[in-house]
Fold this protein.
Amino acid sequence: MSAQPDWAKNGAAAAPAPAAAAPAAGGPPKKQGVKDWSADKVIAVMRMINFFNGVFMIAGAILQIVTGVVSLDFQVLLLSVYITMFGLMLMCAECHINFFDKRIRKMCGFLYGYLGRTCFILFAASINFAMDTWLGYIIGIGTIINAAFNFWVIMFHPGFKAAGISASDDPYSTYTGGDDEMKAYLRNHPQLAQKALKAGVSVAQQNPAVAAQVATAAVSASANASRKPSSSAPSDNPFDAPG
């Protein structure tokens, strides 16, 4: 019979512990920062921030008048109207609904360039400061931060440079239309569409005159939308390079 190994004998030291597993190559996964985001992700984040920036501008302009934070005079009323209009423009542009998009593009072509939109957001911030109230300053500072974030993304974000996006490009060219997103949502939630349809029919039955006016307006809007503008019309975007 063969002799026992030294570690098996009474009083001998215990068997040596197995060596610890070597750490995985590269160490723990690195957390992704804003610089690591893809161009699509950072554009989606900018879209969301810009939309809510418009919401806060509108809410702030209304609240400052309703709550009596400012004394109501012609100047304050005019500033409130401007802030509300700018907030609505930013919201509608970010929603990218075709009905509004065509009109905003025609009247405010400067919004349809990354740099033009950033300048617009910065200008909107200055109007909030003109209200000269604590709420106006808060919204104005938040809007300036948003403009600075837009500018940083345009000029320095690696994903933007990798995707070949320039400051004069149309920020809405890659957006999914708001009306298309609503259609997709209703397709995925048919019960909600059925409820909305039933509610619309009920309102039309109770208000036949209003229903007739809505139908007439819809037919008129459809006829106007079918008229295609001339393809030779110049671009309203001042940041577009001349052809």
The two ends are 97 Å apart (CA to CA). DSSP finds nine helices and no strands in the chain. The mean pLDDT is 77. The longest helix spans residues 39-66.
